[in-house]
């Protein structure tokens, strides 16, 4: 089914957040209704039938932190009859008007002054020191949580808000639907990391998004069982982060390998995280078990680090050599070379050294201090004037990460926005949800191959121009449209060889997260067709590792690159000593 046109609320509307929330609920009911239990679907449909004020109050509470709310803290101009609205929500099973809570939960809701009043009511014979801080007052109250010494601490005493503190001048309400709204959030966002404010409190109309076809086959979840597996994995991660769990027991609760690639990648990351915590806790054997079960790309490196302490040098050497052959990420290769360097001599094997880095040409220029501008733009102006003085026409553009990323996106648009399962969850995504996952490219390999083949058959220029016209202004993490204007686009397509573009795009695809940045600041097109890439460094600025790696790669491709160190012509700013690459 095609993406429907959805209403986008303006921030001028006092109920804009409610309109956006309704969009979420209707989307989930339409596209994921079969993944909801019947009672869940009925409750969401019932919510949409409630009076507007009841819907508004509920969404206000859902967007706030926690499930417990003092009525004195709920003040919204759009809700004019709070008691009646709350009663309607309670009758619809969204709100509990007299929840029973523990002393610990109560103390989190009270100020220091209120805790003192609670002490005076509950423990009138105990004087609270004036200098006591909040935690000390809570310690005084703590015996009230377990009045029966024979009761286990886990069975903490529970009473209503008024039961604990009859003198309170307000009431306490509790949301009874957060599990349902977490489910809705998962089905809409595709994760439980994003909160409601990232969508509900956003004016959606000021950005344009690619229209992606949403079909049942493109959903991340095909069955409710898969939804429940995700929720279980999330619960495992929360337990890990809380540190209130035995790691070995947590590992046993992780499901076996899954046939859903999207869920399996989450399982792999969870196992890797458990392994890292086991390492920190000095549980090496448990960590190895986690890494061996995890498909996370860093798991093999962590395994090798542990095997250095327990296996023979030859076993480690052979395994590291095998890993190096398949490693595609630069950071992986760096770690593997370090491991090989440590174990080679012990294993009686030759030292394996990484390729020697290329020498990057340097140049030094002086320009007027760019008041109101940037050192990159001042340098672009310098090279433009330099060309004029030499009798040539040089077009210099400040592009940094915009040009090559933009060309890549325009060429590979069909692959980047392919509606694969787990990629797109709602119509307001600027990129696939799995863009930075390790398997992003492999899942779309045939699509990327098809796009990159256009660089071989010469049709790439037509494809890039076509998508530049068709997709102008659509939000993506690769395109900054104001910097990708036609004069620059035409010069780039005319003078950058297709073979070099293909090599650049292939490296970008090796590690999108790392390689999407670090491109040189300037590109210069000389009148004779020669292209120069220049990384600009102002006074005190230093070359970063990811910038160096791109420059070295460009040199391998035979491209003209350099690092340009800039100093100021006037004396209003200190000029540093001649900098060195680092």
UniProtKB/TrEMBL annotation:
Swiss-Prot/TrEMBL catalytic activity: Hydrolytically removes 5'-nucleotides successively from the 3'-hydroxy termini of 3'-hydroxy-terminated oligonucleotides
Cofactor: Mg(2+); Mn(2+)
E.C. number(s) listed in UniProt: 3.1.4.1
Hydrolase in keyword set: yes
UniProtKB keywords: Hydrolase, Magnesium, Manganese, Metal-binding, Nuclease
Enzyme kind, highest EC tier: hydrolase
Occurrences of domain VRR-NUC (ranges): 455-568
Superkingdom of origin: Bacteria
One GO process term, biological-process aspect: interstrand cross-link repair
A molecular-function term among this protein's GO annotations: phosphodiesterase I activity
Pfam families according to UniProt: FAN1_HTH (PF21315), FANC_SAP (PF18081), VRR_NUC (PF08774)
Gene3D superfamilies for this protein: 3.40.1350.10
Keyword Lyase among UniProt keywords: no
Family: Belongs to the FAN1 family.
Name the UniProt record assigns to this protein: phosphodiesterase I
Species this chain originates from: Proteobacteria bacterium 228
């Amino acid at each position: 089914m095609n993406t429907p046109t959805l209403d986008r609320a303006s921030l001028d509307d006092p109920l804009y957040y409610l309109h956006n929330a309704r969009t979420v609920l209707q989307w989930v009911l339409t596209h994921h209704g079969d993944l909801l239990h019947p009672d869940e679907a009925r409750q969401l449909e019932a919510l949409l039938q409630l009076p507007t004020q009841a819907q508004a109050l509920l969404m206000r509470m859902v967007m706030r932190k926690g499930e417990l709310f003092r009525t004195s803290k709920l003040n919204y101009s759009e809700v004019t009859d709070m008691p009646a609205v709350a009663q309607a929500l309670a009758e619809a099973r969204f709100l509990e008007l007299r929840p029973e809570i523990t002393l610990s939960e109560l103390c989190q809701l009270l100020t220091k002054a209120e805790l003192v009043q609670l002490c005076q009511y509950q423990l009138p014979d105990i004087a609270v020191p004036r200098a006591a801080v909040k935690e000390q007052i809570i310690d005084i109250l703590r015996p009230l949580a377990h009045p029966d010494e024979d009761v286990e601490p886990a069975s903490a005493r529970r009473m209503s808000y008024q039961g604990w503190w009859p003198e309170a001048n307000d009431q306490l309400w509790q949301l009874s639907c957060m599990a349902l709204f977490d489910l809705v959030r998962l089905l809409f966002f595709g994760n439980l990391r994003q909160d409601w404010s990232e969508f509900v409190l956003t004016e959606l109309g000021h950005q344009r998004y690619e229209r992606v076809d949403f079909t049942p086959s493109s959903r991340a979840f095909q069955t409710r069982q898969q939804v429940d597996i995700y929720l279980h994995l999330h619960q495992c991660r929360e337990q890990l982060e809380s540190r209130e769990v035995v790691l070995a027991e947590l590992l046993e609760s992780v499901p076996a390998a899954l046939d859903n690639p999207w869920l399996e990648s989450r399982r792999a990351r969870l196992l890797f995280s458990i392994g890292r915590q086991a390492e920190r806790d000095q549980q090496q054997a448990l960590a190895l078990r986690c890494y061996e079960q995890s498909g996370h790309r860093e798991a093999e490196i962590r395994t090798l680090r542990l095997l250095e302490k327990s296996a023979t040098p030859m076993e480690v050497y052979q395994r590291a050599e095998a890993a190096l052959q398949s490693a595609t990420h630069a950071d992986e290769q760096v770690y593997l070379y370090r491991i090989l360097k440590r174990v080679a001599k012990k294993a009686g094997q030759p030292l394996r050294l990484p390729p020697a880095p290329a020498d990057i040409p340097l140049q030094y220029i002086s320009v007027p201090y760019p008041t109101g501008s940037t050192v990159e733009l001042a340098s672009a102006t310098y090279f433009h004037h330099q060309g004029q003085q030499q009798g040539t026409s040089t077009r210099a553009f400040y592009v940094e990460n915009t040009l090559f990323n933009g060309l890549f996106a325009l060429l590979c648009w069909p692959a980047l926005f392919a509606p694969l399962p787990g990629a797109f969850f709602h119509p307001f995504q600027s990129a696939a949800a799995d863009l930075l996952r390790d398997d992003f490219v492999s899942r779309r390999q045939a699509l990327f191959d098809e796009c990159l083949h256009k660089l071989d058959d010469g049709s790439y220029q037509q494809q890039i121009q076509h998508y530049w016209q068709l997709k102008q202004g659509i939000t993506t993490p690769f395109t900054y449209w104001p910097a990708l204007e036609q004069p620059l686009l035409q010069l780039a397509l005319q003078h950058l060889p297709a073979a070099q573009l293909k090599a650049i795009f292939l490296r970008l695809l090796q590690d999108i997260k790392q390689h999407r940045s670090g491109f040189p600041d300037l590109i210069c097109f000389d009148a004779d067709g020669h292209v120069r890439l220049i990384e600009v460094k102002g006074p005190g600025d230093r070359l970063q590792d990811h910038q160096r790696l791109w420059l070295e790669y460009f040199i391998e491709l035979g491209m003209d690159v350099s690092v340009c160190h800039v100093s100021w012509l006037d004396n209003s700013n200190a000029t540093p000593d001649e900098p060195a690459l680092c």
